[in-house]
Amino acid sequence: MAHDSHQQVSAEGTPLPSFNHPISVTTLLATFAALVMFTIVTVVVAKSLPMGRFEIWVSLGIATVKALLVMLFFMHMLHDKPFNVLIFISGFVFAALFMGLTLSDSEHYQDDIRAAPSFEGAQTTPILARGAEE
Amino acid sequence: MGTATVDNRRLYGHAPENNYLKHTRGIASWMFTLDHKRIGVMYLVGVTVTFLLGGFFALVLRSELFTPNKMFLTEAQYNQAFTLHGAIMVFAFIIPAIPGSIGNFVLPVMLGAKDVAFPRLNLSSFYLWVIGTFFLLVAMIAGGLDTGWTFYTPYSIQTPTNVVAATFGAFILGFSSIFTGLNFIVTINTMRPPGMTWFKMPLFLWGMYSTSIIQVLATPVLGITLLLLIAEKLLGLGIFNPAQGGDPVLFQHFFWFYSHPAVYIMILPGMAIISEVISTHSHKKVFGYTFVALSSVAIALLSFLVWGHHMFTSGQSSISIVIFSALTFSVAIPSAVKVYNWLATMFRGEVVLTTPMCFALAFLFLFGIGGLTGLFLGTLSTDVHLHDTYFVVAHFHYVMMGSTAVAFFAGVFHWWPKMFGRMYNETMGRITCLIVFVGFNLAFLPQFVMGSRGMPRRYARYDEVFQIWHQLSTIGALVLGLGILLGIVVLVRSLFNGKRVSGNPWGASTLEWQTTSPPHFHNFEFDPYVGGLYDYKGVKYDESVEGYVPIIPPGVAAPGSAPVPQTAH
Amino acid sequence: MATAEAASASEGHGSDGHGHDHDHGQFIAHHFTGPRQQYDSCKLGIWLFLVTEVLFFSGLFVAYTIYRYHHPEVFEEASKFLDTRLGALNTIVLLFSSLTMAWAVRAAQLEQRAVTTRSVLITIFCATVFLGVKAVEYSHKWGLGIFVAYFFKYDGAHHGDTNSYLTTLSIVPGICVVVCAALAGIGMATGKPLSGKFWGALALGLGGYFAGVGLGVGYEAVFASEGESHAEAGDHAAPAEHAEGDAHTEAEHEHESTEALVMDPSSDEARNLGLFFSIYYFMTGLHAFHIIAGVIALAWIMNRSIQGHFRADYFGPVDYVGLYWHLVDLIWIYLFPLLYLIG
Question: How near does any CA of chain A get to the CA of C327, in Å?
């Protein structure tokens, strides 16, 4: 991925090994500034603009932009091996799969859940509450 | 140039002294060892203990089922017996057995590496296994456990038995499993020797790699599920408790998102062993190597798409069960690819019926039955009838016990000479295999029959029409138990009076056979030569070492000689 | 290990193109061929670990999504108990800690040891500030009777003493700061300046907790005083009307139906609100646990930095802990809008 063309040197003047890519201070500060800006934007948008059911998507969109900024710059993904990036992304893919398939059928049995509390003996006392009740 | 300066006996012979078992002594040198081989041996001992413990519970509950009415267990005790059998076998035996013991021992040596990538993590993985198993035992002694190994809510929230200790134990065992998987992925990725590209890797490594992918991706979800359940028990979170408006089916989704892939954590290492054993003892390159390798990865990925087939009768929507059923069938494809390729590997090979090969043949038979009966359960219409009957019990025992555990035995017998430098009695080994095979089928074939006739699982009492099938099954279980004990006796006896073996008694081609038996404490005294994969013409019998040695081509530096510049790559 | 070291030194570095002297090989494990293989392996390992963390948290996000999807109105009500401004403050604190963490990695890569140590210290400080603010938020809710579902008993009145909850939460951090300060003193007195420096810095870093508590309490005193006094005055007379001020200041201006927030603890709504808080406490609690684990890892890094272990070809540990720390930040980036910015 993107390499700085000029040879970086350490504080002692020795050249850095090829796996060592320091991120410039300017990039770090710019990333932080953008992150703070997006945080303020998301609060202002959520609290002042009436968007109804789109609100969550706007909030999550802004959060995703922030997450990408953190991953690309703070987590050095721009300089990392593509395989490592693939691995990390695959974590989100499988999490999405988990969420998607679980959500797909939860509608179906909500009525049964609503009816459940009326069953005899369904109420249980958590272990940490038992001492207090006795 | 190319002339060996070290003789073959030092490189490939029996190593009575300079090996990993003897280079340091004392309990502490084992307890704090970072050597993957010693950790593997400790795992081997540990999982044998849990296997015997789980097997003990199996025999107890099978004995109780000899008659339809009460013999010696109350219903509550029976519930505890099958739960502990399941929980111990799944979490403390099958999942860690092959990766922990054989995987740990063989994987780095197969790569020509000195150790796994993270030796400390490896040792902590073993101790986490010990701690997790300890908590399962605590649950067993303090309060028992009667939820079934699946811990389904809301019953697991209501039961007074010690769910918290058991789930905490399983939670810790999950971490042990994650650490092993993480270690193996990194080791295979970054520590392959020069010349061993992805598609020149032995199939055992492909199998372990696929297993590790599942361990890393699925096990964390089990972790959070069990943590939520513990919090539910202690604090009354209500997330899984319908009495508080929670969603018990959500628990099943959480649980099976891990636990279905987990059955592939159990079977893939078994398949990995079988690939090696069949190729080695048929002295023939694995037929369709690329397909077998990629089918492991395919199984690993598909395993994440089928968990809903455990929940066909749990109130899932119709569209979900149709999707899950269809996806379930797709897993049959890579599994069948493997079986056909193993059969084709044996075809016109020089098959030698050694003990590991006998176990491998038993595996093919049992996995065939286990796999095909899975299709009946994946079919919606038949599953509604067979769900929660002995048909399911028989199916997963054919896959878990008949396939994974038998493959584990095949692996132990295959690598035993490498681990300890001693050969067991082959005749007794074959008899062991025969007893295990007969006992297993006698125990579980009748269960298919009674299951399809409606005998529900997890019942302590049953209708008299099922009695003959239960009795056959119980007798089979006892025979199976005897076979396993005999196997342990055969192996342990060999440690004392077994014939000493050279580095490569089977004529195998993978790298772990190109060092001494038992291996040098750094695995290889000199970097081994990476020759052709499954190239059985690349080894020859050497009288001086009484075993096989690799044929080093001219122009290549033999191990231990002065390196020849720039030819090894 | 010593013999292994010699063995690994005698092996060539293979594909590792750059010439590399072995004078600081003490941190290269014997089974790796060189610093590059070690770095690549550990880096892959930490990414895989982060994947397990993502999937670990994914279960909670799934539970959240299911309940929010089926009970959106409950989530809108419940979210009003959370203070957006404190949440935003904590977000920025964590983002800043990510900045200093990334800076620490850069400094370690460039062998700027003092900068590394200082950046890690600031990161620890920010982490504990976050925990301090969180403690104020938790104790405030506990004082209102807002617990996980089973113990949920919010009815608009004060149930417990917020301050005593806060004091209880602060005991462990307090002990930690005192112990670190004492160890620093011992280190200085016994002529181990590096040890003294480390424990002193750690005491300072952990002291951030109390800065966070101060920040949170100060915030509540300034911004919430109006609503608090309002609610307390009416506590006995008419809790129903003023309960909202008690729970939250902002809600007063935005939310019209105050009675919705005052309820019989055994009602269905209360039970569902309790479910929201079960998820809230579990998510933020698990996140806080990861912050605590991160602080321990950061302390380890700070100590090694003080000892001068890190070099241009051995900065890995800073990098790995950094990646973990950024992941903790990533999770919070999603938790903040999902929990605080509803409705």
Answer: 9
Measure Cα distances from A89 to A93, B213, B507 in Å.
Answer: 6, 14, 43
Task: Spell out which residues of chain A touch residue B190, defining contact as CB-CB under 8 Å.
Answer: none
> pLDDT tens digit string along C36-59?
899 999 999 999 999 999 999 999
B544 touches chain A (CB under 8 A): no
**Residues on chain B touching A92 (C-beta within 8 angstroms):** none
Residues A70 and A56 in one domain: yes
Q: Would you state the pLDDT for residue C76?
A: 84
pLDDT in the model for residue B567: 42
Residue A96 lies in a domain: yes
Tell me how far CA of residue B5 lies from CA of B8, B527, C195, in angstroms: 9, 14, 51
Total number of domains constituting chain B:
1
Q: Do B217 and A91 touch (CB under 8 A)?
A: yes
Instruction: Determine the distance in angstroms separating the CA of C264 from the nearest CA of chain B, rounded to an integer.
Output: 15
Q: Cβ(A92)–Cβ(C57) under 8 Å?
A: no
Confirm whether B514 is domain-assigned: yes
HEC string of B171-234 equals: HHHHHHHHHHHHHHHHHHHHCCCCCCCHHHCCHHHHHHHHHHHHHHHHHHHHHHHHHHHHHHHH
Distance from CA of C45 to the nearest CA of B (A): 6
C276 within 8 A of C171, measured Cβ to Cβ: no
Cis peptide before B559 (omega within 30 of 0): no
Contacts of A55 (CB under 8 A, 6+ apart): A45, A46, A49, C341, C342, C343
DSSP output for B267-315: HHHHHHHHHHHHHHHHTSPPTTHHHHHHHHHHHHHHGGG-GGGG-TTTT
Angle at CA A96, nearest 5°, toward A90 and A99? 145
Residues A73 and A86 occupy one common structural domain: no
Shortest distance between the Cα of B268 and any Cα of chain A, in A, equals 20
Closest C-alpha to C50, from B420, B253, A85, B518: A85
B548 DSSP β-pair partners: B541
Do both A10 and A26 map to the same domain?
Answer: yes
A2 in contact with B at a CB cutoff of 8 Å?
no
Q: Does B164 touch chain A (CB under 8 A)?
A: yes
Say which residue the tokens 């806060």 belong to: C166
- Evaluate whether residue B200 is within a structural domain: yes
Task: Judge: A73–C341 Cβ closer than 8 Å, yes or no.
Answer: no
Query: Which structural domain range is residue A100 located in?
Result: 82-119
Q: Is the per-residue pLDDT at B245 higher than 90? A: no
| Residues B465, B453: Cα–Cα separation, whole Å | 10
C30 CB within 8 Å of a chain B CB: yes
**C219/B contact by beta carbon, under 8 A:** no
Q: How far is A61 from chain B (nearest CA, A)?
A: 25
Residue B332 lies in domain: 8-550
| Helix (H) or strand (E) segment spanning residue B542 | strand B539-542
Please answer yes or no on whether C51 and A66 come within 8 Å at the CB atom.
no
pLDDT tens-digit readout, B385-412: 999 999 999 999 999 999 999 999 999 9
Same domain as A15, residue A5? yes
**A31 plus A90 within the same structural domain:** no
Q: Which domains does chain C have, with CATH numbers?
A: 35-282+290-340 (1.20.120.80)
Q: Does some domain include residue B332?
A: yes
- Quick check: A71 and C326 CB within 8 A? yes
Co-location of A68 and A108 in the same domain: no
Reported as type and span, the H/E element at residue C178 is helix C162-189
ipTM of the complex: 0.93
In CATH, what number is assigned to the domain containing residue B52?
1.20.210.10
Residues of A in contact with C160 (CB under 8 A): none
Any C CB within 8 A of B118 CB: yes
